[in-house]
């Protein structure tokens, strides 16, 4: 089982967006996946409440119970756990970082957001875990994303090779408990998530099974028929 902590000091960076989209595509690829929601705002839990599917599992959690919850997930043969942390660098975020195999840091390509990632990177260093920035809500036109990635890399920061752009599919999908892949599997948003997940799979050496998740497939097919 692999564990990914999604951490950002700054609110609105897109932690929950990254968590739920990676979780859905992981289930679609045959991985038993859970999201542990540590954020007091409970955005991932609210998304799950609107969702007409039991997968991916979303658990409202407390940092003090992370170890026990991870043991339970492993006992239930989970393949991947994504921890959606609170928007600050407190003890809960440090606890998430310490149990993670890898840390993702969502960040918008704006000066204030880029300046704020230093604390999160320091937290990852304290935990002794590898961390990558995932640029999120990047304007679909222009070179702002490329420029932000280059600036971060020049500063010695690891940047995931796939950014997520500010696309309507992301917003529309989560309104009723779906992901962009389920909203429109041919969309640019779905393609970006698939590419990001492919990179994560290689980085964590996640096993991709042939088991197809019928619940995520049915939701995607139903939406496709509706459009047609």
- Rg measurement, Å: 16 Å
The rounded distance between the terminal residues' Cα atoms is 39 Å
Roughly what fraction of the amino acids lie in strands?
A: 5-15%
Largest sheet: 6 strands, parallel
Proportion of residues in helical segments: 40-55%
CATH superfamily: P-loop containing nucleotide triphosphate hydrolases
Domain count: 1
Let me know the average pLDDT.
91
Reported by name, the CATH topology is: Rossmann fold
Labels describing this entry:
Rossmann fold, 228 residues, disordered C terminus, alpha/beta, single chain
Helix and strand arrangement:
Elements: E1 2-6, H1 15-28, E2 33-37, H2 43-50, E3 57-60, H3 66-75, E4 80-84, H4 91-99, E5 102-107, H5 111-127, E6 131-135, H6 144-154, H7 168-174, H8 180-183, H9 188-204, H10 214-227
Parallel strand pairs: 1-4, 1-5, 2-3, 2-4, 5-6
Describe this structure as you would to a colleague.
- With 228 residues, this protein is of the alpha/beta class.
- The protein has one domain (2-227): Rossmann fold.
- 49% of the residues lie in helices and 13% in strands.
- It contains ten helices and six strands.
- It has helices at residues 15-28, 43-50, 66-75, 91-99, 111-127, 144-154, 168-174, 180-183, 188-204, 214-227; strands spanning 2-6, 33-37, 57-60, 80-84, 102-107, 131-135.
- Strands 3-2-4-1-5-6 form a six-stranded parallel β-sheet, with helices on both faces.
- Helix 2 links the parallel strand 2 (33-37) and strand 3.
- It is globular and about 45 Å long.
- The model is unreliable at 213-218 and 224-228 (pLDDT under 50).
